[in-house]
């Protein structure tokens, strides 16, 4: 999924510059979660202006599907015991400011995962996901033709995999493969390349007539892709092993989130002064809405995360929505908490979120059934936290 922050950031950059950020290939500033990228601080007022400029394509109002702020604070999941304060079960990195002259130049310094701590061996990229043999990382190489995905071992050894120029990897649903886009500005024919993580070898590829090719995500339906653009564009779908490419619909692609472990796709739209998040699945004619949740639009763009079992979606306004029933749980984070990125589920019942308020960032574990949240980790005042997919 996750990637809303990255795509929103890229949109703002595209509006600010004549040449899109993806001019030499998507995700050159390292997607992260390579699903992203180096952490970017975007003023919320600017973000609001960008959102208003492009979010003009709204899904029809779906009678009986809309759920709003005034829903009762209950969820369809069974209640559980007290929330644990134990260490997060997901990996995360702490980032430090490496260039005093450029506050946006932030690298990860330490990777934390299950009691293991690995120092950065010199990568400017990001840790993307836990994988066999260690963790999937992006190199952050400044020359896009030499950028490459790699596996970082627990001893700090870096093993490059896949083609040169491949960045912003999307992990397969079973976690054994990655997909990268090979795309250059000005070229209309670009490639999607699938790589086996264990061997590092290419196992499938597809040439598509999509300029500035960007991979949105990979789930059970296949690899989602589109042109990197702030405007509504055709979103296409390819299942490795097939030669067929399907057009799903026309969307502002950065408003879509694809969760690799299930078939739920979420989309953010705006209706007047309301923001709406729609959870949908792929049907014969395109996306079919399963649940819509609307709320008063705020200055900051909302961030959406779907649980690994596809049952719950959480939104950075501080709620968890049961997709089947529409019932809502309010997450009881501190009143001062600021949640400006996607959360990550440890398991179907527990979400880890970053609280960016105060002099030091904090990690909280929240039970989506009860809304109870407890602090589980704290960064140093001069560090920031980036969560990593398990």
Describe this structure in words.
This protein has helices spanning 4-16, 44-54, and strands at residues 66-67, 92-97, 106-113, 116-119, 127-131, 134-138, 149-152, 158-161, 167-171, 177-182, 190-196, 202-208, 213-219, 222-227, 233-238, 245-251, 256-258, 265-271, 274-283, 286-296, 304-306, 312-315, 319-322, 328-330, 344-347, 350-355, 362-367, 373-378, 383-387. With 390 residues, the protein is mainly β. A five-stranded mixed sheet has the order 1-20-19-18-17, with no helix packed on it. Strands 4-3-2-29 form a four-stranded antiparallel sheet, with no helix packed on it. α1 (4-16) crosses α2 (44-54). The two termini are 12 Å apart.
Which helices and strands, and how do they pair?
Blueprint: H1 4-16, H2 44-54, E1 66-67, E2 92-97, E3 106-113, E4 116-119, E5 127-131, E6 134-138, E7 149-152, E8 158-161, E9 167-171, E10 177-182, E11 190-196, E12 202-208, E13 213-219, E14 222-227, E15 233-238, E16 245-251, E17 256-258, E18 265-271, E19 274-283, E20 286-296, E21 304-306, E22 312-315, E23 319-322, E24 328-330, E25 344-347, E26 350-355, E27 362-367, E28 373-378, E29 383-387
Parallel strand pairs: 1-20
Antiparallel strand pairs: 2-3, 2-29, 3-4, 5-6, 6-7, 7-8, 9-10, 10-11, 11-12, 13-14, 14-15, 15-16, 17-18, 18-19, 19-20, 21-22, 22-23, 23-24, 25-26, 26-27, 27-28
Helix pairs in contact: 1-2
């Amino acid at each position: 999924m996750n990637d809303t922050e990255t795509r929103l950031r890229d949109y703002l950059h595209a509006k600010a510059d004549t040449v899109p950020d993806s001019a030499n290939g998507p995700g050159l500033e390292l997607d992260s979660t390579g699903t992203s990228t180096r952490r970017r601080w975007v003023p919320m007022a600017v973000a609001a202006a960008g959102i208003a400029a492009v979010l003009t394509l709204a899904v029809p109002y779906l009678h009986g599907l809309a759920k709003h702020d005034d829903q009762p604070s209950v969820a369809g999941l069974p209640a559980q015991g007290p929330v644990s304060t134990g260490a997060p079960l997901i990996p995360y990195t702490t980032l430090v400011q490496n260039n005093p002259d450029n506050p946006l130049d932030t690298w990860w310094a330490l990777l934390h995962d299950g009691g293991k701590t690995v120092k950065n061996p010199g990568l400017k990229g990001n840790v993307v996901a836990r994988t066999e043999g260690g963790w999937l990382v992006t190199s952050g190489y400044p020359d896009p033709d030499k950028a490459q995905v790699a596996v970082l071992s627990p001893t700090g050894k870096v093993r490059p995999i896949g083609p040169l120029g491949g960045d912003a990897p999307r992990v397969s649903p079973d976690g054994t493969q990655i997909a990268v886009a090979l795309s250059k500005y000005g070229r209309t024919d670009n490639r999607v390349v699938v790589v086996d993580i264990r061997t590092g070898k290419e196992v499938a590829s597809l040439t598509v007539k999509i300029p500035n090719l960007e991979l949105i995500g990979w789930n059970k339906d296949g690899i989602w892709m589109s042109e990197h653009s702030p405007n509504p564009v055709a979103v296409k779908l390819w299942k490795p092993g097939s030669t067929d490419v399907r057009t799903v619909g026309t969307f502002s692609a950065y408003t879509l989130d694809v969760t690799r472990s299930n078939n739920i796709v979420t989309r953010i739209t705006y209706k007047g002064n309301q923001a709406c998040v729609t959870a949908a699945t792929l049907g014969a004619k395109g996306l079919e809405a399963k649940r819509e949740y609307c709320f008063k639009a705020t200055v900051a763009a909302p961030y959406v995360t779907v649980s690994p079992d596809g049952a719950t979606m959480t939104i950075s306004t501080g709620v968890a929505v049961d997709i089947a029933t529409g019932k809502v749980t309010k997450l009881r984070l501190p009143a001062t908490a600021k949640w400006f990125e996607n959360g990550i589920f440890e398991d179907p019942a527990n979400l880890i979120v970053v609280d960016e308020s105060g002099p030091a960032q904090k990690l909280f574990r929240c039970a989506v059934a009860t809304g109870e949240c407890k602090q589980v980790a704290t960064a140093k005042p001069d560090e920031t936290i980036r969560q990593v997919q398990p």
